Amino acid sequence: MRKLNAEMGCLPSEIKFNILSRLPVRMLCRCKSVSKDWLQIVSDPYFLKLHQEQSKRNKQLLLLNQGLGDDEDDTRPQFVHFLATSLEKDVHFGLGGFICGYVYMIPSGHDLICLINRGHFHIFSPSFIKGIRLPQAKLSNCLEMDAGFGYIPSQNEYKLVHMFDVNPNPFAYSIKCEILTLTDGGTIGADAWKEIKQECPFKVSGWGVLANNKFYWIVSVVCTPCEEKSIVSLDLETETFDFIPHPHYVSYLEGNDMFLVELKGQLCFIDTFAYPPVTDIWVLVDPVRKIWVKEHRIDLTMLQGFDDEQTQVLIHGYENGELVISSQQKSLEFYDTRRKIFRKGEDLNLLWHTGICLYTESFFSLGIVDSGL
User: Fold this and answer.
1) DSSP secondary structure string, 110-167?
2) How far apart are CA 38 and CA 25, in angstroms?
3) Cβ neighbour number for residue 369 with a 10 Å cutoff
4) 117 near 101, Cβ under 8 Å?
5) Which of 161, 119, 159 minimizes the C-alpha distance to 140?
6) pTM of the prediction?
7) What angle is formed at CA 335 by the lines to CA 334 and CA 340, rounded to 5 degrees?
8) CB 196 within 8 A of CB 239
9) What is the pLDDT along the chain (373 residues), one digit of tens a residue?
10) Which of 203, 156, 205, 160 has its CA nearest to residue 178?
């Protein structure tokens, strides 16, 4: 690196900024010790903004694999490991050592991801290959972990929302909500979880999706009183819940047909497995007036190996005009939204339980957890 520093010494500052902004975060942290000039560049607010914009244009793919199947009650020890395009090799991250049972992953759409293992929340930074275990969340009588995790750029902080049932009656529910805020380099104390006053009106299904400074969940089918109240939202500013109607859907396979995802900063409702097999993508273009517009209709018969009785189609993000799609194959599919064609990615040896997400590298530091926890 010192040889590179000497060669770059005579270059204009803007060229140095441009070159270094293309390096991953871990390498840039090492660059700080090369020279005072590089330390000043990497610490410059303009450079940090430039690197962030560069990272947004080149999101990284993160894969999570685990040694066991999907048995959450399995007590055998295992390692969870990640493979990312920005990492040199698989990273073994044992959540503080060996773990037991299945690990769930909630992407944020940014750098950090949230992991859930046996009722505990963990946060992992792919950029620094570092993880922390968060303070214990409230226990739920229904023994389910309903949560949402996302990044708010305007405040440079992450929000983790946790739903929990406080009703001891197994045939009824009373859903409370608590929120944990992660700030850059901040200390996470024992009082990190803040419970909000309003209860969530219904049980939700799946992980929450953050868009427009709100989290959104599809309401659990058994709790939905009518089709007009099928998506529940949590406004992070007012800490209040609301409903929005979902668009008309044509799905017919239970449990495998509808989900929410954030694409290009907007909430999208994904509707799959109609006949003939299609995937409709609806965009919430006006969150205030609650207006949906059908943005895309994807013909799934063009998807190699597609079987409408077995294949599960999931959309993980949008990159360079293409939707990133997994369909229980060993590789990902990329759908060109303009040309309306699929492109098969490289063989990643994906397994049915491989966790998949896109993330944007950043210098966001996890900070520390209060040692008194």
Assistant:
1) SS-EEEEETTEEEEEETTTTEEEEPPPPPP-TT---EEEEEEETTTTEEEEEEEEE--
2) 14
3) 17
4) yes
5) 119
6) 0.88
7) 155
8) yes
9) 555 555 555 677 788 888 888 888 888 888 887 788 888 888 888 988 899 888 888 888 888 887 665 565 666 666 667 777 655 445 555 444 456 778 889 999 899 999 998 888 999 998 888 888 899 999 887 777 789 999 999 999 999 999 999 988 877 889 999 999 999 999 999 899 999 999 998 888 889 999 999 999 998 765 555 555 589 999 999 999 999 988 877 665 544 578 899 999 999 999 876 667 888 999 999 999 999 999 999 998 888 877 766 677 899 999 889 999 998 888 999 999 999 999 998 888 888 888 899 999 999 999 888 755 4
10) 160
Q: What is the DSSP string of 184-237?
A: TT-EE-TT--EE-SSPBSS-EEEEEEEETTEEEEEEPGGG-SSTTS-EEEEETT
Query: How would you list the strands of the sheet with 120-125, edge to edge?
Result: 103-107, 113-117, 120-125, 130-133
Residue at token pair 């560049």: 41
What are the angstrom distances between the C-alpha of 314 and each of 97, 241, 260, 342? Answer: 31, 27, 10, 14
Q: How far is the C-alpha of 125 from the C-alpha of 132, rounded, in Å?
A: 9
User: Given the structure tokens 């009722």, which residue do they identify?
Assistant: 119
DSSP state of 95: S
**Nearest C-alpha neighbor of 217 from the set 285, 149, 280:** 149
Cα(334)–Cα(325) distance, integer angstroms:
6
In order of 96, 131, 138, 216, 241, the CA distances from 146 in angstroms are: 23, 21, 12, 12, 15
CA distance 162 to 177: 6
